[in-house]
Amino acid sequence: MSGRADLWPLIHQERAALADDLSELTEEQWATPSLCEGLTVREVLAHLTSAATLNGLRWLAGVVSCRFDFDAQVAMRLAEQMGTSGAETLARFRGVTRSTTSPPLPKPAILGEAIVHGEDIRRPLGIVGACPIATLTLVADYYRGSDQVVVAKSRVRGLRLQATDGPFASGTGPLVSGSTLALVMAMTGRSAHLDELTGGGVDILRERVNG
């Protein structure tokens, strides 16, 4: 890709695919616990909607109003996008699938959020996504070198990562091998994907994820 501006079409693609995957959910399914501790799949989707409606100024205003409690700011903005039903939460998300508004984050982080939170939602519902390997590889490359938005770089320090379904490879040390998606999810702290990984470094990574 020629530049990070080129990531917006990928972000839009991932959002649209997630919206389509959730189009037939019942209200009971919307209440399913997500992979994000304490949040339902509906709440995680509302969080994604919120992120696509916040520019830097609104984000900062929210942080200030919450007295620099970043978790409180996230919860406040999430609540703004819930609506009165799962169908309304989804409709609000569909309305921002092509948004280019974002908090002050690098575009790979925004793409990563769409993919990781998409899996946070899909996996508990038994939905298998179809994200292109090239997109997953780009996100894996971002996370293995960054602790900026979520701790990922530190989590895989001293480990050799090797994708079994694509070209992603990184680091030296004990091996952690598996699908690119499983590596991304483990890097970002999701224990649900650890059993899909193999190699001598898995136990080390498991301790870091669960520690």
Structural class: mainly alpha
Order of helices and strands: HHHHHHHHEEEHH
Helix content: 40-55%
How much β-strand is present in the residues? under 5%
Pfam family, one: MDMPI_N
InterPro entries: DinB/YfiT-like, Maleyloyr_isom, MDMPI_metal-binding
GO molecular function, one term: metal ion binding
Write up this protein:
- This protein has 211 residues and is mainly alpha-helical.
- The chain folds into 2 domains: 119 residues, no CATH class; 78 residues, 2-Layer Sandwich (Nonspecific Lipid-transfer Protein, Chain A).
- A 3-stranded mixed β-sheet has the order 2-1-3.
- Helix 1 runs parallel beside helix 7, helix 3 packs across helix 5 and helix 3 runs parallel beside helix 6.
- The longest helix has 19 residues.
- It is globular.
- The N and C termini lie far apart (36 Å).
- GO terms for molecular function: metal ion binding.
- Pfam families: MDMPI_N (PF11716).
Question: SSE layout and pairings?
Answer:
Elements: H1 7-21, H2 27-30, H3 41-51, H4 56-65, H5 70-80, H6 86-94, H7 107-125, H8 133-143, E1 160-163, E2 169-170, E3 175-178, H9 180-187, H10 202-210
Parallel strand pairs: 1-3
Antiparallel strand pairs: 1-2
Helix pairs in contact: 1-7, 3-5, 3-6, 3-7, 4-5, 7-8, 8-9
Pfam families: MDMPI_N
GO molecular function: metal ion binding
Domain Mycothiol-dependent maleylpyruvate isomerase metal-binding: 12-99
